[in-house]
Each structure stands twice: as C-alpha cells, then as structure tokens.
Specification:
Layout (H helix, E strand, L loop, with lengths): L7 H12 L4 E3 L6 E5 L3 H11 L8 E4 L5 H4 E2 L3 H10 L4 E7 L13 E5 L4 H9 L6 E3 L14 H8 L9 E2 L12 E4 L3 H4 L2 E4 L5 H8 L27 E4 L4 H10 L4 E5 L10 E4 L4 H16 L5 E5 L8 H10 L3 H7 L6
Parallel strand pairs: 1-8, 3-6, 5-9, 11-14, 12-13, 12-14
Antiparallel strand pairs: 1-2, 2-7, 3-7, 4-5, 5-6, 9-10
Helix pairs in contact: 1-5
The structure holds threonylcarbamoyladenylate and magnesium ion.
Length: 345
C-alpha cells in the first residue's frame, strides 16, 4: 500500500494492517513511531528486524485515551495515576510492572512495561480504531537502531523506503512532530525500593513531575530498567558530530577552512561570515530548538561534510532533554576533533 493520507478511511485501513500483524509508521507529537500490535509477538519481532535493534531492548506501548492501564500493568502506584491525569495524552512514558498476560516481547524480556498515550490527533484516531481502542501499539521511534529519530513522514521513508517497498505496510503522514524529541521516560516499577527514576529526559521536566507527585525523580542506578535511548552512542547521523562552545566556533571554522575540512554548522548565536559547506541557524528557545533538532541533524548529514559542528547550549534545566540527545549524537566529540586535527584552538 502506498503512503496514506490520514482521513478516516486511511486510519481504518492502517488499523486493519496493524491487526493483521503488519508494521505501520504513525506520527506522534514527539517523533514518528514504528508501530505493531503489542500483543502479537511476531509483529513485535518484525519491529526489531526492521530497526536492526537488539531483541533485549524494550519498546513503548501506545494506548488510546482513557485506556485501561490495569490491563497492561500491575501494582500501579498512586503516583502513576496522578501523572496520567496531569500529562496524558502527552510526551510522558511511564514504566510500570508488566501484567502477567502481556507478552515479554514488548519489554525485551524485562518484567516491566512502558506505557504512553500520545496527543497527536492521528495517533489518537489510530489507537481508537485499532482493536476498538482496547489494543496497544508497540512503537519505538521509526528509525534504524542508533540513527536520528524521524519527525516527518519523509524522514521515515528515508529510513525504510516507501511502502510497499521495504518493511512497512503503510506510513501515516501527520505533518511535522510538534515537540521534536522523544518522550520523558519515568520508571515507577520500583517505587517502594527506589522511588521514581528518570530514565530519559524530555519535554516534561523533572520539576513538572515533582510538582505533581511531590518528589523529584532520581537519576538511573545500575539496576534501573534498560533504555536504549540512554546508550552512549545514539541519535547519531552518519557524519561525525562535535559539540563546540560558542567562543571556540570561529577559530575552529577558520582552522578547518585552512586545512580543507568540510564543516556543517548548527549554530544558535549569530555568526558572521561562516566558513562552512552548510549551516542551520537553530531557533533560540528550547521548544523551537527541539522542534528543529532532528530535521537539522538530517539536513546537515545529507551534505556529507567531514564533520557536523553543533554550538554547545546552556546547561540549564529547559535544555536538559536536548543536551541529552546532543551529547549522545556527539558521543566522541573530543576524539573526532583530534582525528581531524581541529583541536588546540
Ligand atoms: O516519544 C517517544 O517515546 C517515541 C514515540 C514514538 O512515542 N518513542 C520512542 O521509542 O522514543 P524508542 O523505542 O526509540 O525509545 C523508547 C525507550 C527505549 O529507550 C526503551 O528502552 C525504553 O523506552 N523503554 C520502553 N519500555 C521500557 C521498559 N519496560 N523498561 C525500560 N525502558 C523501557
Ligand atoms: Mg529511538
């Protein structure tokens, strides 16, 4: 089937494909997801095969608004109920103890399950239609393992091809994702022993969570459930990425020009006379920056420069989720600058 324009008929067709065990890419407010029936282990296995993702990495189960959480999870703490009231539908994923009848395939064999109710209208319409609103759609970000997440349908086609070519049965095009970075992930599966633990920062901040449950989430400990978005090298384009302080940018670009290196730049401050093969002037606010981040990384990757240089951002709370993604995209900044002989500036 070709790409679907998501009217009611297209949503229904996509729901039927999911019910038949096929893969459907869907828009969410964070990033596009690669969806499959969460209760069909063969369908979930196809997600792993398409992404090239290790089978022990859990995926998030997406639920329709008003879904019965107790069908999916057990020992649900009161904090979960409060956070769901405050932030669902929206970019918050909760890790809870998995109900016994939910296949272990969705949680990479762990005894937990990640649940989220997305706010994107197309995602919601699909989730309401799929199994009459009582199903769950397992959906990691619709990119190959370790790559940059997709925020448009075009990005998904760039990763997997245009259906029916490639592993997807359909792609629902819901425009550009509004938030632009993946959901905040909060582990509540070990409340009694560890309290709430932040597994991945995102648009919903630790302070917003604390305002609802009265306690700031802790950072992950060694025994925390695994989250692949928390690996060191992740969200990475093919071109090496280096994070560079604003004051060092002009010198680095001069140095690169004199040694014939081709540099793509993502700057936030004003730069005069940028000596680069490509440039993306990033938005000034955290919301605007997050919205553009993955599209910018993909655009800069497409010019096949020797290096993508990203101007380092403030280390303040509103930038936490973005800094987390950039740090992983630029996981070997120092080594890369050294190999390109761009250090010592
Ligand atoms: O915004 C998002 O969360 C997007 C959209 C599509 O909803 N999804 C997304 O999925 O980012 P993915 O698979 O790329 O990242 C999901 C993260 C992974 O790091 C995974 O390990 C973690 O959620 N996760 C899912 N279920 C989990 C579980 N039971 N325990 C621990 N981590 C879990
Ligand atoms: Mg991902």
């Amino acid at each position: 089937m070709a790409e679907l324009i998501p009217d009611a008929a297209a949503i229904a067709a996509a729901a039927r494909l999911l019910e038949q065990g096929e893969l459907v890419a869907l828009p969410t407010e964070t990033v596009y997801g690669l969806g499959a029936d969460a209760e069909n282990p063969q369908a979930v296995a196809r997600i792993y095969a398409a992404k090239g993702r290790p089978a022990n990495h859990p995926v998030i189960v997406h639920l329709a608004p008003g879904a019965d959480i107790a069908y999916w999870a057990t020992d649900i703490p009161v904090e979960a109920t409060r956070l769901i009231e405050a932030f669902w539908p929206g970019p918050l994923t909760l890790i809870l103890k998995r109900a016994a009848h939910i296949p272990a395939a969705v949680s990479g064999g762990q005894d937990s399950v990640g649940l989220r109710c997305p706010s994107h209208p197309v995602a919601q319409a699909l989730l309401r239609e799929f199994k009459g609103g009582r199903g769950g759609v397992a959906a990691p970000s619709a990119n190959r393992f370790g790559h940059v997440s997709p925020t448009t349908a075009r990005h998904v086609r760039d990763e997997f091809g245009t259906p029916p070519q490639g592993p997807l049965a359909a792609i629902l095009d819901g425009g550009q994702s509004a938030v632009g970075i993946e959901s905040t992930i909060l582990d509540l599966s070990r409340m009694a022993s560890h309290g709430p633990v932040l597994l991945r920062p995102g648009h919903i901040s630790p302070q917003q969570i604390a305002d609802v449950i009265g306690v700031l989430p802790a950072l992950p400990d060694a025994a925390a459930p695994r989250a692949s978005g928390t690996l060191d090298a992740h969200y990475a384009p093919a071109t090496p990425v280096a994070l560079v302080a604003a004051e060092q940018l002009p010198g680095l670009l001069e140095n690169a020009a004199s040694t014939g290196k081709r540099i793509a730049v993502m700057n936030r401050s004003e730069l005069s006379a940028i000596n680069s093969v490509a440039q993306y002037h990033m938005p000034a606010t955290p919301e605007g920056y997050a919205h553009d981040l993955y599209a910018a990384l993909r655009a800069m990757d497409a010019v096949h420069a020797d290096l993508i240089v990203v101007e380092a951002l403030p280390a303040t709370a509103p930038w936490q989720g973005i800094n987390d993604r950039l740090r992983r995209a630029a996981f070997d900044s120092a080594g890369i600058l050294e190999r390109l002989a761009l250090t010592g500036i």
